[in-house]
Write a structure and sequence with these properties.
The protein is α+β, with helices and mostly antiparallel strands. It contains 5 helices and 3 strands, in the order ααβααββα. Strands 1-3-2 form a 3-stranded antiparallel β-sheet. A hairpin with a 2-residue loop joins strand 2 and strand 3. Helix 2 crosses helix 4. The longest helix has 13 residues.
Amino acid sequence: MAEMFKALANPNRVQIFMQLLRCCEPGTACDASDVTSCCVGELGEDLDIAASTLSHHIKELSRARLIKTTRRGQQVECQVNREYVVSLSNFFRLDQHITPKE
């Protein structure tokens, strides 16, 4: 979990990650068939950062296992790693299992 939080501690990485999460309507869940991918260049279009910096952010998100990357020729496609996103989501649901002290 710490590696995921460390990777998401950077605003640019959060923005990249959020772009990849936009595979479904807000408030709905995506199944494996809904997973979309984007090329690295597409992810960097809204960020005012150098290509090398974008590459570093992609590497950090991948290292934290939040995203998967696949090389297709000269392009690198990225997609959210559903398994780890579910783990992250479950982490924030801990409050459902904790009863407050009275």
